[in-house]
Amino acid sequence: MTVTLSESLHRLIHSYKSEIKGAINNSDMALHVGHIRALKCVQRIPNCHAQSISQKMGLDKSQVTRMVKELHGKGHIEKRPNPDNHRSQRLVLTESGKHILNTMMTLDEATSEKMARGLTEQQINDFKHYAEIITKNLCE
To answer: Are 94 and 78 in contact (CB under 8 A)?
Structure first.
């Protein structure tokens, strides 16, 4: 039986998500993957606010508002006044949020090493190239 491109992609995504979720569960982080993605947005987006996260993650505003509230309540982010728009607030990582992302970076690196076992540097670069083409095709 021949495996289709869609099936290969589905199996890869499922395996990756399972590996990451397992690593998160085995660590001291009590957060969902969505929360970690939101923290990454706060870290990477200059002058980040809830709408920026909503756009980047493709989630509706109410979902992001709930995540921001939870992350703020756990002390992982701070809300600061937005000098450009008084109706919104900038989001900034706290030391706790930075610690979580540092831990996540270590878990990501370990997962990447596990995924790349037995592959050459050229094969890894080829995979990334093809994945970018596929992503671009699906986003058009």
So the answer is: yes
